[in-house]
Structure formats: C-alpha cells, structure tokens
Design brief:
Layout (H helix, E strand, L loop, with lengths): L17 E7 L6 H14 L4 E7 L6 H8 L4 E5 L6 H11 L4 E4 L11 H9 L4 E5 L6 E2 L5 H13 L14 E4 H5 L11 H8 L5 E5 L1 E2 L11 H18 L1 H29 L8 H20 L8 H27 L5 H24 L9
Parallel strand pairs: 1-2, 1-4, 2-3, 5-8, 6-9
Antiparallel strand pairs: 4-7, 5-7
Helix pairs in contact: 8-9, 9-10, 11-12
This protein binds guanosine-5'-diphosphate-alpha-D-mannose and manganese (II) ion (MN).
Manganese (II) ion binds next to loops.
Length: 373
C-alpha cells in the first residue's frame, strides 16, 4: 500500500471528474469502438467522464464521425498547427477539465476496463498510474518479433536512470490535473510524453496497473524510425534535466579525451610536414581548443544560454590558460611532498580538469534561464 503521508494527495481532495485525452491521427475505424468501451466505464464511474480526441487534421471522417455520435461527453478537436503526438497530448491535457487526466491510444491497444483500478490507485495516494505491460499480470500479444521486443527493451533500459517504472514507454497513464499543472516546462521530442511527465512532474508514488496490450487490428501504426531517433534526443534532454551537472561532466570529460587525441594527431601531422618541434605544439594546442570548445558548446553545455560565439570562445581560452597555470602550481605543490613527478603531474591534470569544468560551467557556458525547484 502506498504511504499516503508522503504523497501529494491533499487532504479531503475529490477526484470525481475524469477527462480522457486520446491523440488521434487517422483512427476513424477505431474511434467508435473506443467510445463504446469508454461509455461502459463512464456509466460505471457515475457518468463523470469525458473524452477529448486530439486529432491532427486526419481528414478521414473522424471529425464528422464524432459530431455524428452526438454525445455531449465526447469532443474532437482538430489541430492544424504544431502537429505531433506529444504536442497533441500536451494540448489536450491543458484543455482537459477533469480532476483526473488520462492519456490513451485510440487503437484499442490500451484497455479502458482498467480505468477504475487506476483511479483507485490515485485515490489511494498515488501520484501517477501507468497501464503497464511489464509488471506481473501484464501481457502483450505474442506476435512481437525479436526486433520489436529488443527495441522496446533497449528503450526501456535507457530510461532506467530516469524512473524506476517497469514500462516507462507506456502511452497509457493517469494523473491528477493538479500534478500536471504543477509544472509548465514540458518539452518533449518524439513519442514518450508519459516519460516526460514522469520525470518532470516530480511524482513520488508511481503505481503500475497490469494491462494486456493488444496489437492494433485496424489502421496503421505511426511509430517511425524518425520517432525512435528523436527518442535518443529526448532521453539525453531528460538526463540533462535530471542530472544536470553529472551529464555535463561526463560529456566534458569525453570531449576532453577526444581533444587529446586531436592534439596528438595534429602534432604528428605538423611534424611530418617538417614543422619545428618547438613550434608544432602551438597550432596543435590552439586547434584542439577550438575542437573542445565547439563540442562543449554543441553537447556538454547545449542547454546553456546562447552567447556571441567569439566572446564565448575567448572566455573558454582564458579559462583553459588559467587551468594550465593551476595545473602547474598544483604539480609544484604536490612535488613538495610526493616523490614521483608522474604522480604530481597527474594530480595537476585532475585539478586543472576540475578547474576547467567549473569555469566552463559557471562562467563560459552560463545557464540563467532554467528555473528549477
Ligand atoms: N494527434 C496525433 N498526432 N496523434 C498521433 C500522432 C500525431 O502525429 N501520431 C500518432 N498518433 C496517435 C495514434 O492515432 C494513436 O492513437 C496513438 O497516437 C499511438 O499511435 P500508434 O501509431 O498506435 O503508436 P504505437 O502503437 O506504435 O505506439 C504506442 O505504443 C508505444 C509502446 O509500445 C504508443 O502508445 C506509444 O506512446 C507507446 O510508447
Ligand atoms: Mn498503437
């Protein structure tokens, strides 16, 4: 049982009304079947449920169909700008009026029959309920090929440091409207809007309700290779969000290591052109600094404020030069009591790397626009 004291459940809250947000693109065949099954659940829940189809201008008769149903609890919104699954879902969640928000697919992969038990979880104190394929009792249709299975497993594994949910890829979930509204900095790329919410809404108690995930019978899946590549970008963004400094440090160190390789290659090249051995390190050092700067700007500190590139580069070079001085001074200091010059030099390099990272993070690639709690 969840520990109600540590959840965000306000005392005496009423979770009465539910809005189900369903993103759709060309789902005209599935809409009536889903509405019928949701209707059964609606009756069971005291008619306090409404459905919002967020349709990206499918032009397949979906809009006319929903209008023809003439049900006051079913609406379809035609979206003509800012298209995309996650955008449609966020748009729908913002428009939704229920105390409780649900997101589910239109293609009947997600069974509406588990809505009451998801609601029970929220009423019991959970912040977020996930319709899950990968907890005890959860299943998928067996026709999953090895590739699809592997794909799904790898994607899930990549999300592991972000959330301990067994099925963070699920597009079927429920949360309070107030939980959703406690943040506004949602910025998903690609498909995984549930993961975005899980990471950003600070949900303490997440519970998974087992579902049988049915493969779609009608219409076509829209999950493309492009969406999967976007997932990589999304995961990187969420890592940066959640472990800001550590992700930056790991990338900074990787860039530094690559800079060392670039430096050595250039040095070898210049020497092979017959350049003086005392001069060759100068362009090699400068160019590897340019290399490090570009990669750090593009990757390690990509979420930082955009500033004039030349000024930023000068700041980076100054920081690195100062870092070299730190390196030298620390080496001398350690030499004072350690016998090994190699040891002293190593400590010097580590100190200088730490200094360079701190200076890059706090001075060169400043970040002022992100408001975190
Ligand atoms: N509005 C809108 N715009 N809806 C979209 C778009 C879009 O660009 N693309 C897809 N949809 C809708 C579909 O109509 C469907 O209702 C739902 O989003 C999911 O699309 P599918 O094409 O059925 O996706 P899937 O089955 O490959 O992926 C599902 O399973 C994954 C886990 O295996 C989704 O639930 C994913 O969120 C989930 O991660
Ligand atoms: Mn589907």
């Amino acid at each position: 049982m969840p520990d109600a004291a540590s959840s965000s459940k306000p005392p005496g809250e009423s979770l009465q009304t539910i809005t189900v947000v369903v993103p759709t693109y060309r789902e005209v065949e599935n809409i009536p079947l889903l509405v019928e099954r949701l209707g059964v659940q609606r009756a069971a829940l005291g008619n306090r449920l409404d459905v919002l189809f967020m349709d990206d201008d499918s032009r397949d008769g979906s809009a006319e169909l929903v209008q023809g149903l003439g049900l006051d609890w079913v609406r379809l919104i035609t979206r003509r700008s800012d298209r995309g699954l996650s955008q449609a879902v966020l748009d729908g969640l913002r428009r939704a009026t229920g105390d409780v928000l649900v997101v589910m697919d239109a293609d009947l992969s997600h069974p509406p029959e588990v809505l009451p038990s998801m609601l029970e979880r929220l009423r019991g104190g959970a912040d977020f309920a996930v319709g899950s394929r990968f907890v005890a009792g959860g299943t998928t249709d067996d026709e999953w090929g090895l590739l699809r299975w592997l794909n799904s497993r790898i994607a899930t594994l990549m999300a592991f440091p972000l959330t301990r949910v067994a099925d963070p890829m699920s597009g079927f979930f429920m949360l309070r409207k107030s939980t959703f509204e406690s943040r506004s900095n949602y910025n998903p790329v690609g498909y995984k809007i549930g993961l975005e919410l899980l990471v950003k809404c600070d949900c303490k108690i997440v519970e998974e309700v087992p579902i049988h995930f049915t493969d779609r019978q009608l219409g076509e899946s829209k999950l493309s290779l492009r969406e999967q590549l976007l997932y990589l970008k999304h995961v990187r963004r969420l890592y940066t969000y959640k472990f800001s400094m550590w992700t930056q440090l790991v990338q900074f160190l990787a860039v530094g290591a690559s800079g060392l390789v670039v430096n050595l290659l250039l040095l070898t090249l210049f020497l092979s052109f017959g350049m003086n051995v005392k001069l060759a390190p100068i362009p090699a050092i400068f160019l590897s600094m340019v290399w490090n700067f570009s990669l750090n700007r593009r990757f390690s500190f990509s979420s930082s404020d955009r500033q004039p590139i030349l000024r930023q580069f000068m700041a980076f070079v100054s920081a690195c030069s100062f870092g070299a001085v730190v390196n030298y001074l620390v080496t001398l200091f350690v030499l004072g009591f350690a016998r090994s010059p190699q040891l002293a030099a190593t400590v010097g390099v580590v100190a200088a790397t730490g200094f360079n990272f701190a200076a890059s993070r706090l001075l060169v690639f400043k970040q002022t626009h992100v408001v975190r709690k």
